[in-house]
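seq as requested:
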Amino acid sequence: MEIVMENPVVLAWMGDAIYSAKARKHILDAGIRKADQLQKRNAKICSASGQAFVLEKLIESECLNEDEMEIVRRGRNAHVKSVAKNSDLQTYLKATALEALFGYLYLYHHEDRMTILLDQCMELGDLL
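struct tokens:
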């Protein structure tokens, strides 16, 4: 594993943008074209509770390798100053952990792995 110096909140900041962009593309690819439907679907997939659900399913399926689980652990232990309006702290930290994972994969050039996991996340997001 690379020595990851970035704060998990910084990784999550980057990962949030990647996850959101992938969710929007996924929704458009599904044929949803009305603005209000796009926004509602994106909000559900990208919400803290949606991301926490996806992370739990990824962990249950044991598809994350040791390095990825370490980033997830760091993300869940992040020190955050505020949480999402509609979320409790534990749910928010799980969402932060998922975002940190994608920030790590992007910043450390693991694009192939990032694509695989993002595709899995979008499939799980369809269950929401």
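Helices lie at 8-29, 35-46, 48-60, 66-76, 89-107, 111-125.
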